[in-house]
Amino acid sequence: FFLWRSMSQWFGGLGVIALFVVILPQLGVAGRQIMFAESSDATIDVVSPSVHKSARNLWLLYGGLTVLEMLLLKYVGDMSIFDSICHGLTTISAGGFSPNPASISGYASPTIEWILIGFMIISGMSFPLLYVGLRRRPAAIVRDGEFRFYIGTLLFAALGVALVLSHGVINLESVRTGLFQSASFISSTGRKIAFGASQ
């Protein structure tokens, strides 16, 4: 049940968009318009001139990030293989499901939290922009106005959470918790940790 729920969240992420991009053009619907409805103007014509190739490229990016997260959780975070698979599938898709009843707090691992922070931030980004940045122009990510607003909002929220949790005296744990909670909220992943649970 846990694996099925994780897989359904993963397929519900970028999978549905890519599926519609491949199928809808055959039905006479403009798949390219759906694919780039929420992308910044800089990435519309850069990912690929072919809708099918764009969908394939984004699927590869989505799958590659998923596998990378699974491996990091397993081998760096020392999470069980089953849990790392479930969390890999549900973080990049921003689904947020965890097989652990205590969610991420149940692992009591700052390393796992840092890995998840990174992938929750990625899950909230524009995948076409990320693809262009990784493949061709890394500076395109930093120059993108949507990305700058996203990161600025995330950092502002994280600072606020860290200040509240630490009663004005910021330390590494409050920063990690602030970043985790803010990335979870802003990316809509919905993961949670308890302040002080990783000590």
Explain what this protein looks like in three dimensions.
By secondary structure, the chain is mostly helical. The chain has one domain. It is 67% helix and 0% strand. The chain is built from ten helices and no strands. It is globular, with a radius of gyration of 18 Å. The model has no long low-confidence stretch (mean pLDDT 83).
User: What's the structural domain tally?
Assistant: 1
Rough outline: globular
| Average pLDDT number | 83
Q: What structural category arises from helix and sheet content?
A: mainly alpha
**Total helical elements:** 10
Order of helices and strands: HHHHHHHHHH
Low-confidence stretches: none
**Could you tell me the radius of gyration in angstroms?**
18 Å
Q: How much strand content do the residues show?
A: under 5%
Q: How many DSSP E strands? A: 0
Roughly how much helix do the residues carry, as a percent range?
55-70%
- Largest sheet at a glance? none
How far is it from the N-terminal to the C-terminal residue, by CA?
Answer: 31 Å
Topology:
Elements: H1 2-23, H2 31-35, H3 41-44, H4 51-76, H5 81-92, H6 110-123, H7 127-135, H8 138-143, H9 145-165, H10 172-186
Helix pairs in contact: 1-4, 1-5, 4-5, 4-6, 6-10, 9-10
What is this entry, summarized?
By secondary structure, the chain is an all-alpha fold. Helix content is 67%, strand content 0%. The protein has one domain (2-186).
Question: What descriptive keywords fit this protein?
Answer:
199 residues, mainly alpha, 10 helices, globular
